[in-house]
Amino acid sequence: MKFFDEARIEVHAGHGGKGAVSFRREKYIPFGGPDGGDGGRGGSIIAIADRNINTLVDYRYTRVFTARNGEGGRGSDCNGKGADDITLRMPVGTLITDLNSGEVIADLTQHGQTVVLAKGGDGGQGNLNFKSSTNRAPKQSTPGYPGQERELQLELKVLADVGLLGMPNAGKSTFIAAVSNARPKIADYPFTTLHPNLGVVRVAPEKSFVIADIPGLIEGAAEGAGLGHQFLRHLQRTRLLLHIVDLAPFDDTVDPVLEARAIVQELHKYDPELARKPRWLVLNKIDMIAAEEREAKIQDFVTRFDWRGPVYPMSGLTREGTEHLCLAIWQDIERQKGLELAHEHPEEIEVDVRFQDRDIAKN
After folding, report:
1. Cβ partners under 8 Å of residue 30, min gap 6
2. Degrees, nearest 5: CA angle 63-68-71
3. Phi, psi of 74 (to 5 degrees)
4. Could you give the C-alpha distances from 355 to 242, 323, 332, 333, 360, in angstroms and in order?
5. How far is it, in rounded angstroms, from Cα 142 to Cα 163?
6. β-strands 240-246, 162-165: how paired?
7. Which of 46, 197, 224, 307 is most buried by a 10 A CB count?
8. Interior CA angle at 136 toward 134 and 138, to 5°?
9. pLDDT tens readout for residues 317-332
10. In sequence order, what E strands does the chain have?
11. pTM for this prediction
């Protein structure tokens, strides 16, 4: 199944049914009075988040969703039947925006979360509602109210704890395949990854996190070079970015420092807020460097790149250093979750986060 992370749809809720004008007609009852029923409610369009769906492909080709109108009221005090609602199942992580107003209608971040995209119109009132002591034979009713109509933009942002960032062929897919059960396509040519891949990394039976691999960036992505910026939205929900760098490129003319700087520049061009996310430097393919030369090459890269954050040398192919990296990632994610919980409920929970940096430094 193809991966689609954007779609535009139209939703048309049903109109309410018309109220009836009717009078009771029975033998020996000459003045039966009004008995016109109300119209039925029009059908609504409802979105529900479903964790069993991971793409917007269902909305790539079916773009218009129209609910039925409510039935009109009838005599004998009979109300019209309301129309059934239409339920649209969408992946968890879908952002729904009104195209005309730019208003964010919903951000589906939890399984089972529901939101009304277009509300069905209420039914009109029958003449029974207008009866009074001075108006015993009302002949007025109201029509049904129109349902809402909207043009919507659907944008899928995958939910992951960690996002992988780097040039094509930096080894992102090899890394996610080494530490999780994800099986992305891996080959010796650029842009092997054409859509995001998700993998669950388990560092212990009940200790895990979700990692997202997106297609590689190249210099000029902001102007549409390569695959452009179209997949960077999937990193906006992550807690941590891993900037993976190929420390041993096959082409001697390629400078890993220049490539790493190009990635950082593209990140700032796309979204400064995303560029401010916590980011670790992961130097990949150290198995291609002689053991006695590794330390000097790593230090040279860090110095020229002017990097002061965490650095993790590893090899996705041989899995050297990956266990230590995954454990450090899990610890940092737990620290962030603890800080968020403490911020939301400061009077209920006390979090000690001092162990975090110390443990990572020891490892």
Report:
1. none
2. 170
3. -130, 175
4. 22, 19, 10, 13, 9
5. 56
6. parallel
7. 197
8. 105
9. 888 888 888 899 888 8
10. 6-12, 45-50, 64-66, 86-91, 94-98, 104-108, 114-118, 149-156, 162-165, 197-204, 207-213, 240-246, 279-284, 311-313
11. 0.66
Residue 106 to residue 113: CA distance in whole angstroms: 10
- Closest Cα to residue 280, out of 113, 357, 165? 165
- pLDDT score recorded for residue 10: 93
Paired tokens of 125: 């009132």
Average pLDDT over residues 302-324: 88
DSSP 331-345: HHHHHHHHHHHHHH-
Residue in 75, 94, 74 with CA at minimum distance from that of residue 32? 75
- The phi and psi torsions of 260 (rounded to 5 degrees) equal -65, -40
In whole angstroms, give the CA distance from residue 92 to residue 156: 8
Place of tokens 């952002």: 95
User: 288-301, pLDDT tens digit by residue?
Assistant: 888 888 888 889 88
pLDDT digits over 92-109, tens only? Answer: 888 899 988 888 898 888
Pairing of strands 279-284, 311-313: parallel
How far apart, in whole angstroms, are the C-alpha atoms of residue 2 and residue 9?
18
